[in-house]
């Protein structure tokens, strides 16, 4: 059994945007659910995360995660912590080899970053609120504090909800419009009178490029539309509700 992952050549270190395939969980969590707090059997989640760690070439205890809160706090990692003891934050950076930085998503954008020259990596959980609040820029600043440079940093926005699946209201649009001069470009008219289709991956790319990251890419996969490969909060909301798993994206030096 092996955990399935999407990779991108722009990131010159071991990484993976893992799908929901290749794990041991059952039912609505099938099969590579990486989230301990969603109601799945903890033993299954631990085994799934061990499979992810194996795919990345690290020990299971070196695959780290956070208590994600849709904010802008970023943690600089110097050593592993006990499972479940991650800080309330939405980004991790490190310059230590052998430590895998992981973020959990089920429609939000996972952003993996790497300055291979400096030997610095980062992982970001970027929902619309965190992205609008500056979590991507906070991660870049934390990487630069470790020696990374914008010129040498590559970033990839992983599988997340795409514009064709993400209809939002005026409050979200108003909050995003206040953050970038050209933010209106990431909205298309939705169902009248006050709905819009929001391009979350495009918005994350724009924030990366505005921060000086020219090597910014997106994998172009829609978590909501691809039932077979990804978990999706929006798909669950549009359906009957109920339990849901989460995929993990991770990177290691």
What would a concise description of this structure say?
The protein has helices spanning 42-56, 128-133, 135-145, 170-177, 200-210, 233-238, and strands at residues 5-6, 14-18, 63-64, 74-77, 91-94, 100-105, 109-115, 120-126, 153-157, 167-168, 187-189, 196-198, 215-218, 247-252. By secondary structure, it is α+β, with helices and mostly antiparallel strands. The strands form three sheets. Strands 4-5-8-7-9-13 form a six-stranded mixed β-sheet. A five-stranded mixed β-sheet has the order 1-2-14-6-3.
Number of helices: 6
The CATH superfamily is known as: CNF1/YfiH-like putative cysteine hydrolases
In whole angstroms, the N-to-C terminal distance is 24 Å
Class by SSE composition:
alpha+beta
- Strand segment tally: 14
User: Could you name the CATH topology?
Assistant: CNF1/YfiH-like putative cysteine hydrolases
Low-confidence segments, given as residue ranges, are: none
**Radius of gyration using CA atoms only:** 17 Å
Q: Which range does the strand content fall in?
A: 15-25%
Number of domains: 1
Average of the residue pLDDT scores:
97
* CATH architecture assignment name: 4-Layer Sandwich
Helical amount:
10-25%
Question: Looking at the structure, what is the overall shape?
Answer: globular
Task: Please outline the major beta sheet.
Answer: 6 strands, mixed
Characterize the quaternary organization of these chains. Answer: single chain
Q: Could you spell the SSE succession in H and E letters?
A: EEHEEEEEEHHEEHEEHEHE
**What top-tier CATH class fits best?**
Alpha Beta
The largest beta-sheet arranges its strands as 4-5-8-7-9-13
């Amino acid at each position: 059994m092996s955990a399935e992952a999407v990779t991108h050549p722009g990131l010159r270190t071991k990484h993976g945007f893992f799908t929901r395939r290749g794990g041991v969980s059952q039912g609505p969590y099938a099969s590579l659910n990486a989230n301990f707090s969603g109601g799945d059997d903890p033993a299954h989640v631990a085994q799934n995360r061990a499979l992810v760690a194996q795919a990345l070439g690290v020990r299971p205890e070196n695959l780290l995660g956070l208590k994600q809160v849709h904010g802008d706090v970023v943690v600089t990692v110097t050593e592993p912590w006990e499972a479940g003891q991650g800080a309330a934050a939405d980004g991790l950076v490190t310059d230590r080899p052998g430590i895998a930085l992981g973020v959990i998503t089920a429609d939000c954008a996972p952003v993996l970053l790497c300055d291979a020259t400096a030997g610095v990596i980062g992982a970001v959980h970027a929902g619309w609120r965190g992205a609008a609040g500056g979590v991507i820029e906070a991660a870049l600043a934390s990487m630069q504090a470790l020696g990374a440079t914008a010129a040498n940093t590559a970033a990839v926005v992983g599988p997340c909800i795409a514009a064709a699946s993400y209809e939002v209201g005026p409050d979200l649009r108003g909050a995003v419009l206040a953050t970038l001069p050209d933010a209106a470009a990431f909205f298309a008219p939705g169902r009248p009178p006050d709905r819009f289709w929001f391009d979350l991956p495009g918005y994350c790319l724009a924030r990366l490029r505005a921060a000086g990251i020219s090597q910014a890419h997106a994998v172009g996969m829609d978590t909501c539309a691809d039932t077979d490969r990804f978990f999706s909060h929006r798909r669950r909301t549009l359906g009957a509700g109920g339990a849901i798993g989460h995929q993990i994206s991770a990177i290691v030096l």
